[in-house]
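Prompt: May I have another protein with tokenized structure?
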Amino acid sequence: MDNSIYTTSEDNVNDLKKNWSRSDAYVVEIDGKSIGSWEDYITKIEKAFDFPTSCIDTVDGYLDWIRDLSWIDKESYKLVIHHYNYFLAKEPKLKASIMNDFKEIILPFWQDEVQTVVIGGEPRSFDVYLVE
């Protein structure tokens, strides 16, 4: 299992969603057109992943909760960002930082680090789909 970030089309995501509906996947879809700031992003992510507390003032809190998700009893997580070209379009540094956090922190954690950090932690598939 290699957790990854994929750039894909709307048609491909629609095909993938059919497979996900038959699996034990937790699927979050957000519209990049509606995300222009950190506040927009974290508000959508908090709600979609049902974070126990707000992370609007803390990136560390966000990174903690997105690497916990113990309240979601699923075997895999899928994050789909529709209209990715609009996602944080006026905040390119923030956009790059969020994508880097997925690549360097979040996805590796779920791929194997969870086993050494969490007692009884099990690797999970966590993939991000960037839909143009």
Q: What stands out?
A: The longest strand covers residues 25-31.
